[in-house]
Amino acid sequence: MDNAAIAKGIREAAKKLLGEGKVDVVIGYAKGTVPMRDYPYFAYTPEEAENLTWSGFCCNNLALYAIRRPGRMAVVAQGCVSRNLVGLVNENQVKRENLYVIGVNSPGMVDRRKVQALFPGQTITEVEEVGDELIVKGVGFAEKVARKKVMRQNCYTCVQRNPVISDELIGGEGPASHGGNLDKVAAPWEKLGSSERWAEFQESFKDCIRCYACRDACPLCYCHVCFVDESQPQWCGKTQDEADVATFHLLRAFHCAGRCTDCGACESACPAGIKMRRLTMKIEKDIRDLYGYQPGMAIGAQPPMTLFKPNDPQDFIK
Amino acid sequence: MRNTYIPYPVRIKQTRVETEDKQLKSFLFEFMRDEDAEAFKYMPGQFAELSVSGYGEIPIGIASSPTEGKDLLFTVNKVGAVSTRLHNMKAGDVMGVRGPLGNSYPLKANEGKNIVIVAGGFAVTTLRSTMNWLLHPDNRAKYGDITFIYGARTPGMLLYTEEWTAWQKSGQAKVCVTIDREAPGWSGLVGFVPTVTEQTAPNPDNAIALICGPPIMIKFTQPVFDKLGWKSDQIIMSLENRMKCGIGICGRCNVGPEYVCKDGPVFTKTQLDRLPREY
Amino acid sequence: MSSKILSKDKLDAFLQGLKGARDVFAPAMVEGKVGWAAVEQASDMLTEFSNTEMSPKDFFFPQTECMMRFKNASGDPEGMIMMAEPALARPRALMNIRPCDAKAFQVLDLIFVQDEMTNDLYWRDKRERTACIGLACNDPCPTCFCTSVNCGPHHEAGLDLLLVDLGDKYLVKVLNDKGAELAKDLPAAAAGDEAKAAELKIAAEAKITGGVSMDQVKSREVMELYEAGHWDRVQESCLNCGTCTFCCPTCHCFDIQDEVQGESGRRVRNWDTCMSWLFTMHGTGHNPRGTKKDRVRQRFMHKFKYIPVKRGGEIGCVGCGRCVQLCPVNIDVRRVVNDMNA
C-alpha cells in the first residue's frame, strides 16, 4: 500500500475511533507548512481527523505525547514509535488500557538534510513521494531522487519497521528491515583507542547549541526535572564550553542506555545536524552484547539497567 | 559610560538573624568607595542585586531608607544557592551590590495624601524603607495620616520589631501589627492581614495604599479595599519575579510588556488588571 | 546618502582594504553548512546563498560571554571584586549580512541600549566597533516574510553599507558616515545603476507571498490576545526546546552564571530560552509561567505584542524564516501570527 492509501486508512480509523468515542484524541501527523516536515497533530473530532496524513516525512516520535497524558488516546505508530510505547508502558509512563495503537509499517523516513545536500544553494519548494522515489521541486527544477539515497541513517539499519503492538494495523505488515546492519553503526568507535574516541566525540558534538531539542524530542526523556536543569546542586554548567556540552550529551546518553529504539527523532530535531546516534548506537550495541537485550520489543520486558541480577556481566567495571 | 552589570564593592558591616526560624537575616552594607555611595541614589521601593562572586546574584528589596545615611540594609530569605551562601557570610566580608534597580513607590507624586501601608511576612522590607522615609522630619509634614498594617505568622516571625514599636510610640503613624494566631506573651492584634485591614477600615478619600505580601494575602486583601470603596489606581503593589539582569533585557521577569525589574516592581492595580497574572 | 559601485573583480581589493583595520567575517561554506566564518580573500565568501543557518547575532551577543572575572581567594577582599572583561580588541566588519539579520541588530539596539541604566556595554561596544555591510536579497525564500514585519529584502536598517547585486557589479548604498568612510575609494554609481537596483528591490518584494497580517494584533489589548483560544492548539506539539529562540536573530534572553575553577572565577552570560520552565522558576517553587502553553505564548506575545508596545511599534521578528525551517515540530510563526490576528 502506498503512503497516500495508508494516510486514508489512518483517517478512516481515526474518524471511527473519535466518532464512536473510543478515544479522546488521535495523535498522528499532519502535512507541514514547509517541504519534508510533517508534524505531530492532535485530532479531537472526526472533522479534525481529515487533517491526518502519512508520508516519508513523519520524523517525530509520537510516543512522546503519550507520556503521562490523561484520558484515552490513539497513537499512529510505526515500528520505532510502537517500541517506545512499549517501553513507556513497561516504565509505567503510559497505561496500555488507555492506549490504542494505530500501527503502520514504516516506509523509512527521509532525511531533509540529505535531500537539501543534493541541491546545494537551491531552494526546495515541494517534495512529492511517488512510490520509492521523491520528486524534488524548486525554483526552475524538478528532479527524481531514490528514497533509499536520502533515507535517515537510522531507517537503513532499522530492524523493526512493523509495529510490535497494534490494535489496528493499517496497510498490513511489510518488510521488517531495510537491510542495514545496526552493529556497523558502532563499528567506527570500536576501532578507536580511548583518546581517539574522546577526540571523535568532541568533534561530533562541537556544533551543539544546547537547545535540548534532542532531549525534548525523545520519548525516553520524561524526567520531571532533567539533570541539566537541576540548580541545587548544579550538575552541569550552562555554557558552550566543551566540558558542559560533553557533560550534557554523555549523561543523557547513559540515561537512555538500554532504552533507545533508534527512532532518530533526536537527529531529525537537531537544528545543528548533530549525529548523536554515533554515541547512542555504541551504547545500545554494548547492551545487546552484554545483556542480549533490545529495547521495546515486548510488553513486560525490563530494561537491563533497571534490573539487577547476581550473574550480570561486570567485566566493564574497572 | 558605566558598565551597569559590575556591582559596587561593599563590606558587610553588621548581620542580624531576624526571625525565630532563622530563615531571615539582615545585612547592613557599607560601600567601600565613597563615589559609589554617592552614585547609589535610591527611593523606597527600589531593589538591588546582591552579588556574591562564585555564587551569583539575587534581587532583594532595599530595606533601608535614603534618610538613614549611606549604609544599605537588606533582609534576605534563605531559599537558593546565593542566599544560602550569603547567610553564611559575616561582618567584614566583601561582596557586591548592583543598583538601585526598578521604580519606587510613588511617594513624591502623592504628597498631601493619607498613606496606608499593608505588609505581610517578609515583604515588609521595602515598606520599612517607606515608613522610615515618610516619618523623617523632612517628609512627615508633607503627608496626612499614615497607617501601617503588618502581619506575620507568629511574634517570632515579625521583622523590625524595635522600629515599628518606636513608630507606634511616636504617635506619627497608626501602627497595627498582627499575628495569625494567639501566642503566649503576645498582647497585640490577632488575625490575618485582610481581617485586620477590614477592622482598621482605611478611608479611601485622598489616600493611597501600598500593599506588599505573599500572593494569598494580596488575594484576600484586595476585596477588602474594593468593599471599602478604594479605586484600582489608589492601590499600589510591588511584584517579585525571577530576575537576572535587573535592567529590563534578559527577559524572564516580564509580566506582559512590563519588566518587573525595570518598569516595576511597583505597579498600580489598574496596571495589573490589564496584564497577565504571570507573577 | 550617495551610492557607489563595486565591480565584482574589485571585490577582493575591497575586502583587503577592510582587512587593513578590521577582522572580516562573511557567510561561507563551513563543513557543508552555510555559516559565518573569518574570510581571507573574496573567494572565501559565498555570494549565492539564501541565508546562514544561524543568525549573526552572536557577533554582538555570543552564546557564552564572559562579563567579568574575580579571584576566588577566600578571605581576600580584593578577590571578591569584579573586574570587567576588556572590550573587543580589533574592530570587525561583517560582509554580506542579509537585510533581515541587520534589521534584527537595529531592533536589539533598542533593547540592549535604552538609557543610562539599561546600557549593555557588551552589546554596544561590539556594535560600535563593527562595520555592517549588507547584501540585498534578490531571491527571497518561500519561508521569508520580512515585508510584513517592518523589514524587506533590500531593507537598510542596522547597516552601514548595502550591496545590491547588479550582475557583474554591486551597487553600494552608503547609509551613514561609517559607511561613507568604508566606501570612500569606490567610484560613484550612475543613475542607471540606482534605477536597476530599485527595480530589483520591487521584484524581490513581489516574490514574498507568504506574509502575516498584524493589524488586529496591533489594535487588540494585551489580555485579549493573551486569552485567545488558539494557544491551546499551538502549544500541543511544542517540545519546549530552544531551537526557535536560539536560531532567531532577535531573541535575546539570557542567563547569568558564576563559574569558579581553582583560584579564578568568572561571571558569564549564556543564551537562555523562554521555552524552558526553569527560566521563570522562583526559588520558592512557584512558577509564573508554569505550563508549556504559558511559555509558547510568551515567545509569540513578546515578539508581536510586548516589544511593539514598548519599542514604538518595532516588532521582535524580522521575517527571516529560520524558525519556520528549523522547528522540529513545524510550529510556523506565520500561522501563529495569523491566528493571533484572526
Number of distinct beta strands of chain C: 11
Nearest-angstrom radius of gyration of chain C? 22 Å
Mean pLDDT of chain C: 93
Unreliable sequence segments of chain A:
none
Proportion in helices of chain C: 25-40%
Q: Could you give the order of the helices and strands of chain A?
A: HEEHEEHEHEEEHHEHHHHHH
Question: Biggest β-sheet of chain C: count, sense, barrel?
Answer: 7 strands, mixed
Low-confidence stretches of chain C: none
Q: In terms of structural class, how would the helical and strand content of chain A be classed?
A: alpha/beta
Largest interface comes to:
B-C, 48 and 55 residues
Distance between the terminal alpha carbons of chain C, to the nearest Å?
A: 40 Å
Oligomer classification:
heterotrimer
Query: Counting H and I runs of at least 4 residues, what is the number of helices of chain C?
Result: 12
Topology of chain C as a string of helices (H) and strands (E):
EHEEEEEHHEEEHHHHHHEEHHH
Any overview of this molecule?
The complex is a heterotrimer of chains A (318), B (279) and C (342). With 318 residues, chain A is α/β, with parallel strands linked by helices. Chain A is 34% helix and 14% strand. In chain A, strands 1, 2, 3, 4, 5 and 9 form a six-stranded mixed β-sheet that branches. In chain A, strands 6-7-8 form a three-stranded antiparallel β-sheet. In chain A, helix 7 packs across helix 12 (277-291). Chain A is globular, with a radius of gyration of 20 Å. The relative contact order of chain A is 0.13. In chain B, strands 10-9-8-7-11-12-15 form a seven-stranded mixed β-sheet, with helices on both faces. A six-stranded antiparallel β-sheet of chain B has the order 4-3-6-1-2-5. Chain C has helices at 11-19, 99-112, 121-128, 177-182, 191-207, 215-219, 222-226, 231-234, 243-247, 292-310, 322-326, 333-341, and strands at 3-7, 23-30, 33-38, 64-71, 83-84, 92-97, 130-135, 161-165, 169-174, 254-261, 264-271. Classes of the chains: A alpha/beta (318), B alpha/beta (279), C alpha/beta (342). Chains B and C meet through strand 6 and strand 13 of B and strand 4, helix 3, helix 7, strand 10 and helix 10 of C.
